[in-house]
Amino acid sequence: MKSFVKGCLTLTLLLLMAGCNNQRHQNAIPSGQSKNTIRYAKGLAIYHYDGFSVVRVSNPWPKATKAYTYVLHSKNATIPDSLKQYSKIQVPIKSIVVTSTTHVPSLEILGVQNTLSGFPNLDYISSPKIRKRIEDGKIKELGSNQNLNTEVLIGLAPDVIIGYGIDNNNPTLDNLQRSGLKVLLDGDWNEQTPLGKAEWIKLFGALYGLDAKANQVFSVIENDYNATTKLVRKAALKPTVLAGAVYENQWYLPEGNSWGAQFIKQAGGNYLWGNSPGTGSLSLPFEIVYEKGQKADYWIGPGQFISLKEMAAANGNYTAFDSYKNRRIYSFSSKKGKTGGVIFYELAPNRPDLVLKDMVKILHPELLPDYTLYFFEQLQ
Fold it and tell me: In angstroms, rounded to a whole number, what is the distance separating the alpha carbons of residues 277 and 335?
């Protein structure tokens, strides 16, 4: 499970993007009529051909130094010589191991959750359907992402392992490949836009031969998201918004172009650090944040706090903010799965339409009178 900065930030993913040399991989794409079917995700491209598809993952983590090409092929498909050097995966797959909770919703949405056979840190998973399979002993514990249990994985022999990395050093994934296991990198977390993250469901659609279903699901999410952004145009005012919390004497909050900041802006909020450059997080002294954010109308994402009392106990200075005095603080941290996994971390990247509606309901409740908050709760 990937978390926000140092485990306490909210609405902030480390989405630093950097260029990488994709020319060699672009040259590997066969000529013909096929076009990339991905529209929003910058780190994913899928090209469909007769009997096979080419998947290119170009930016799986910040400052990635190379791209990765995979060939998904049906049984007995003829693969061009130019592609034979790349990892080949026969589809549709029948078994899978994923390594991030953000991968889990795609399996459930596509109705293939029963193919999941292993996962690291099982307690992080919140999905009731997956938890039932865990309790029934049908999904194996794999340890941690930094030290996956190779012996268990070899025994499971999944058709593919969906991995992720945070930098160019991934010895665990390299060892799995040397052991003969198929590993495919997923870079959903490194996408900069809400719809870009959600579009990675199409990768799972390609793996299971469920491209049409994945496209349909994403289209519904896309249309709902875009309809909500249009609704926001009716808002007369843009309330000011503060985010983040103090950790080890520094206040961490989203940079202006980050994933979380984009939701606030698109929901019709005036994020006080919206003009700051970057897609990661800011680290500021408390005094700087207090000076600028004391009068903020709303405070969205106050770290891992789940009550006003807990906030005051951790730092009495929080009570001096207008948003605290007016009880206009909203958090997703109180909504957890059976074993303590935060539902937002698992599902939010896959359902930006629900995150955006939550934001609109908080900032402009009159625009969505019949909507009930899905991820967030007002702290009491």
Answer: 31
